[in-house]
Amino acid sequence: AGAQLVLEERLETKSEDRMLFTTTLKAPGDRNVRVSSEEERDMLCTSLNPSGLVLRRAVVLGEEQLLATGQLVAVGAPGALPPPTSIADVRGMAVPGSVTFRYEDLQSCTTFERERPDAGDS
Fold first, then answer.
1. SS3 69
2. Average pLDDT in the 18-43 region?
3. Helix, strand or coil for residue 11?
4. Contact residues for 86 (Cβ-Cβ < 8 A; gap 6+)
5. Long-range contact pairs involving 49-57 (C-beta distance under 8 Å, separation at least 24)
6. pLDDT digits 0-9 by tens, 31-77
């Protein structure tokens, strides 16, 4: 089962000649998933960027799909151990076990401005 994502779009008039279009992909927040085997743990390790422990690609653990961009924030029960600081922390986890990934909202803003022709353009 994957997480449901919500896309929110907002259009604001900032002035007579300017509008702001904001798109926000609402994140599911923290996702705690089970790591059932050494194979899943090893696949998870190869999917993590060592700098920041962020998923480089989507992975499936059991029946849970984790999207790229999730940041690993816990190994084991949330809050039971200090936050992981390296892939070695994941390699050292007992299986079966659990990991928690954090997803944050992604936002994009586009500004639209009316172009007014110069008085000399005809």
1. coil
2. 92
3. strand
4. 50, 53
5. 50/86, 50/87, 53/84, 53/85, 53/86, 53/87, 53/90, 55/101
6. 999 999 999 999 999 999 999 999 999 999 988 899 898 999 999 87
Edge-to-edge strand ranges of the sheet holding 6-15: 6-15, 18-26, 106-113
Tokens of 65: 């799909």
113-119-121 Cα angle (round to 5): 90
| Beta bridge mates, 35 | 97
DSSP code at position 82: P
| HSE-CB for 2 with a 13 A CA cutoff | 11
